[in-house]
Amino acid sequence: MNEDTQILLKKILEMQLECTQLLTNILFKKNATSSDGEQQQQSKKFEQLEESKIQLDGPKKRGRKSLKPTNYVDTVLQSEEDIKLQQLFQMTPKGLLSPEQCYKQLNMIVQKFRQLNSLTNKTLQLDIEYIKAYHSKNKFRYLRAITKLFVQSIKNLKQIQSKDNSSEMFQCPSCEFIGISSVFFPHILKKHCQNYHIFCCFLCSKDYQSHTLLLGHLKKYHSNYRKHQNLETNQQLQQIDDLSISL
Fold first, then answer.
1. For residue 170, which phi and psi values (nearest 5 degrees)?
2. Is the CB of residue 201 less than 8 Å from the CB of residue 135?
3. Is 147 exposed, middle or buried (0-12, 13-18, 19+ CB in 10 A)?
4. What's the pLDDT tens digit per position in 43-79?
5. Which of 2, 34, 152, 167 can bridge 38 by disulfide, Cβ–Cβ 3.0-4.6 Å?
């Protein structure tokens, strides 16, 4: 029996003894009520037991969780692109802007957003679950939040109170469009910033009106991404071979 196994067994025995002691105190205690000090001691022991269980079972649980596709986290900074993306999300308008200034800056932000998130130039072995998780709804929420910040900083932006449901409406400064915030800010991106929608595919740059439609597109057209990627690579290699033979 090696030293690691002995330490592990010792921990298990200590846990069992503490559990037995706690159960004995609970089931056979003499006083009907216990003091605050005893309760605190018991709670501390329970916490220690829980921590010991996490230490013993943690690696196994983490191993199981890592198999689940929903645990891809795109908010953790893992590369230089992620740091640049976070810096992009931290951008704020400097003072009041004219509509032209607003649209120019938003156009730059959207282009940068697409470049930083693009998967076409990355040499990763991607599967559909990673691709779907990479298109996290949070990213597009941040993009919409930036859009709101910039649009709300337009000089003399008109806000109208709707008579029907008392909701706040916005008058577009560049056309006759009027709408609530959920459609007004996408309108600005779509109509006045080079026809951008909020939700874009990072593989083929197609735009969609909702995150649900985007996920449907990914499932339909990019579920065999690695297969298509390998096929394109083989075709390029074949063209190089053909060229070398002809020379």
1. -120, 135
2. yes
3. buried
4. 665 566 566 555 555 544 444 444 444 344 444 445 6
5. 34
Separation between Cα atoms, residue 220 and residue 212, nearest integer Å:
12
84 vs 233, higher pLDDT: 84
C-beta separation of 119 from 131 below 8 A: yes
In a domain, residue 94? The reply is yes
Q: Give the span between the Cα atoms of 150 and 15, in whole angstroms.
A: 57
In a domain, residue 217? The reply is yes
Give the structural domain span for 109.
72-228
Output the CA angle 152-158-161, nearest 5 degrees.
Answer: 105
Query: pTM of the predicted model, to two decimals?
Result: 0.59
Does the residue 112 lie in any domain? yes
CA–CA separation, 146 and 123 (whole Å) = 30
**Residue 119 in tokens:** 């998967």
Domain count, the chain: 1
Q: Which two tokens stand for residue 156?
A: 């003399």
Distances (CA, A) of 68 to 72, 129, 212: 8, 9, 20
**Strand, helix or coil for residue 96:** coil
Position 154 in a domain? yes
Q: What are phi and psi of 163, to 5 degrees?
A: -80, -30
User: How far apart are the C-alpha atoms of 202 and 207, rounded to whole Å?
Assistant: 10
Burial class (CB in 10 A: 0-12, 13-18, 19+), 192: buried
Partnered with residue 159 across adjacent β-strands are 170
H or E element at residue 160: strand 158-161
Question: How many CB atoms lie under 10 A from the CB of residue 170?
Answer: 22
